[in-house]
Amino acid sequence: MRPGTIGMSPSPGNLNVLKDWKPGDAREVSDAALKKARIEGLFDSYSQVYQLDGKRWKVRDQISKPTGETVYTLVCVNE
Q1: Averaged in consecutive runs of 10 residues, what is the pLDDT profile of the chain (79 residues)?
Q2: Which of 2, 5, 7, 50 is deepest in the core (most CB within 10 A)?
Q3: Which residues pair with 10 in a beta bridge?
């Protein structure tokens, strides 16, 4: 997987599809995927923005699942 392609959307047939993201678009990303992005240096702690799929994303919301996993909703800000 290329750097910055964290949490791509799976399509039928288990192929990853790159979407043409626009500001205001939202996506769900697992806690594990965001942790990997931070380790790879794709998170700017000053602006609180992730660099994913060539766009800039901010955390808008988070949901804790009964399994203990946290899923984050990111919104494309591309600022």
Answers
A1: 49 56 93 95 96 94 94 91
A2: 50
A3: 16
